[in-house]
Amino acid sequence: MRIYAYIRINPNIDDLQKEKESFISVLASFNHKIHPNRIIIELVSVDKSITIRNIFFNLINYSLEEGDFLIVKGIDCLGNSFKEILSTIILIEKKKIKLIILDYANGELKGDIKNSFIHFIEMGFFFEKLFISDQSVQKNYRLSKKVGRPEKLTNDQKQDVINKFKKGFSVYSLAKDLAVSRTVIQRVIEKSND
């Protein structure tokens, strides 16, 4: 049984060594003594997908074996969305790797603790799904919304203006009948010529 510790750190951090020492002290405060070669640090932003996080991906797929412990600082180490976090936990579970999330609990995720944690992640996943679908509906609404001044004339009125103008009605008389300015009538006529 081996123990690995993994932490994800933002690449724009000022003092990497300070962050590493802080993580080691957090591990020590939880009584986890880990060989320095098994403390894995990855410089990647939280919004990057787990598939892009090569160090974490290789750690799970090639370094860890059945019965090994994986200690992570928080759920941000497991993915960039609730869906990814859930799939990562399921992958870790399939490989029979024991998971400890320090921000959640000091012990292994098992039994009722694991069930409530997975239930919480699933709730977050469904909320995230609703939130994303709601955003796409709002985006589509924004795209279909017209901007600028509303049209003075309907399409039927515009066609009527064109037909009457061809019959010899003056711009002034058409504008007076429809209660619009002569400029509106002239634009309709110009657009019909194009």
Determine the CATH superfamily of the largest domain: Resolvase, N-terminal catalytic domain
Tell me the quaternary state.
Answer: single chain
Helix run count: 7
- Principal-axis shape: rod-shaped
Low-pLDDT sequence parts? none
The class by helix and strand makeup works out as: alpha/beta
Query: CATH topology of the largest domain, anyone?
Result: Rossmann fold
Indicate the CATH class of the largest domain: Alpha Beta
Strand order of the largest sheet: 2-1-3-4
Question: Would you identify the CATH architecture of the largest domain?
Answer: 3-Layer(aba) Sandwich
* Cα gyration radius (Å): 32 Å
The major sheet is characterized as: 4 strands, parallel
- Approximately what portion of the residues adopt beta-strand conformation? 5-15%
Q: Tell me the total number of β-strands.
A: 4
